């Protein structure tokens, strides 16, 4: 009897009915609204993000792990499983859900005023409004402590100046959560993108995440009232906690891309014949398939454990915990994609098969929201008690 990779250990038995339902929802939305056209979007780098956002919002996938304001309030494991199915279709679509729900909505949900929550969260949950999260800067990516964007007081208002870069949804966002250095630490602001002095620049000709819209935010004397500031955010720990929240969706999500590569490769290897037999019958091919299935299952168990920890405590995971998850699962997923490419041979680069697209996308996921090196140092600091981030 032939089984699929994640069925080898009967891992479905570890999931609740609600978690399976969330997974099925993500899979159905991907099948209906992403898979039929994603290869074309990747080729043209012109995905219909606004239309997709409405469909994702209608399905309740934006901020689905949050409570109130039209959000479903599901467990983090259920949210992660939905993200895994979305990323099995394309990393860019899962990234859209992660940024909207785990960065923009979570920042407002956790640190915003009642007025900010009432105004923005329901619209973001439905996808009628698209958000972006402005933390990374041209000269301060891995080191946000060097942030150069400034927020200064001018009477009762705030004035923001600075540049944020590699921001998903930047070219099309209606609202941005912007982090800036103020006199008393790092402050967060909810900024409508039609505010005078706010401009965007789209990055074109990217070779990865081409089913996304990515760009730069430029703030030139952006004047905001006090009501735009996130009152609960008082230090750099606020945006970092948002990243911790979002990384769990990555830890689950990348497994979807790896699984999709492995599923496509298994189907191909069973049908492709060389030397008078399917290539899946050769020992070297089976060794590759076995090793990839092993790493996929280990990654799933790691993601499930971290999700269960988050659900049991109701508190964000510790930095080293999310670092272990992101470092391992992204690193192993990209290895799986590359190994699948070797089995597919020349056909592996064709757009009809998803493997090269997933491999290319995972190159971006490998470095966003913390490079592998940064996560290694996070783990190393916890093991040794010594901070190796700076000389």
UniProtKB/TrEMBL annotation:
A GO term, aspect molecular function: flavin adenine dinucleotide binding
The organism's place on the tree of life at top rank: Bacteria
Keyword terms of this UniProt record: FAD, Flavoprotein, Oxidoreductase, Transit peptide
Gene3D superfamilies: Acyl-CoA dehydrogenase/oxidase, N-terminal domain (1.10.540.10), Butyryl-CoA Dehydrogenase, subunit A, domain 2 (2.40.110.10), Butyryl-CoA Dehydrogenase, subunit A, domain 3 (1.20.140.10)
Cofactor: FAD
Annotated ranges, domain Acyl-CoA oxidase/dehydrogenase middle: 132-222
Family indicated by similarity: Belongs to the acyl-CoA dehydrogenase family.
Protein name: Glutaryl-CoA dehydrogenase
Organism: Actinoplanes regularis
């Amino acid at each position: 009897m032939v089984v699929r990779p994640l069925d080898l250990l009967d891992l479905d038995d570890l999931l609740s009915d609600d978690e399976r339902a969330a997974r099925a929802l993500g899979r159905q939305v991907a099948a209906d609204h992403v898979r039929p056209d994603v290869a074309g979007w990747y080729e043209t780098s012109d995905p219909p993000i606004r239309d997709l956002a409405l469909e994702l919002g209608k399905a309740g996938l934006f901020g689905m792990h949050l409570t109130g304001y039209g959000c479903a309030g599901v467990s983090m494991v259920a949210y992660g499983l939905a993200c895994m199915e979305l990323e099995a279709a394309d990393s860019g679509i899962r990234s859209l859900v992660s940024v909207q729900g785990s960065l923009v909505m979570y920042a407002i949900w956790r640190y915003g005023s009642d007025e900010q929550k009432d105004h923005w969260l329901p619209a973001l949950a439905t996808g009628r409004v698209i958000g972006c999260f402005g933390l990374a800067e041209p000269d301060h990516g891995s080191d946000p402590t060097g942030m150069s964007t400034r927020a200064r007081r001018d009477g009762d208002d705030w004035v923001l100046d600075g540049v944020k870069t590699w921001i998903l949804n930047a070219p099309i966002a209606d609202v941005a959560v912007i982090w800036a250095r103020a006199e008393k630490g790092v402050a967060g602001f909810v900024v409508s993108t039609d505010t005078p002095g706010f401009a965007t620049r789209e990055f074109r000709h990217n070779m990865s995440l081409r089913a996304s819209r990515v760009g730069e935010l430029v703030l030139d004397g952006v004047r905001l009232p006090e009501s735009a500031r996130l009152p609960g955010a008082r230090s750099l720990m606020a945006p970092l906690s948002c990243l911790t929240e979002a990384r769990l969706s990555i830890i689950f999500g990348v497994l979807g891309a790896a699984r999709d590569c492995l599923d496509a490769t298994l189907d191909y290897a069973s049908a492709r014949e060389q030397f008078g037999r399917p290539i899946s019958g050769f020992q070297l091919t089976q060794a590759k398939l076995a090793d990839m299935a092993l790493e996929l299952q280990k990654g799933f168990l790691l993601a499930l454990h971290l999700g269960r920890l988050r659900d049991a405590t109701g508190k964000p995971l510790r930095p080293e915990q999310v670092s272990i998850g992101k470092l391992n699962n992204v690193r192993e997923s990209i290895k799986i994609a590359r190994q699948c490419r070797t089995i597919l041979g020349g056909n592996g680069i064709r757009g009809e098969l998803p493997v090269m697209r997933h491999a290319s996308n995972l190159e971006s996921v490998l470095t966003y929201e913390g490079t592998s090196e940064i996560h290694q140092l996070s783990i190393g600091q916890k093991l040794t008690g010594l901070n190796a981030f700076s000389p």
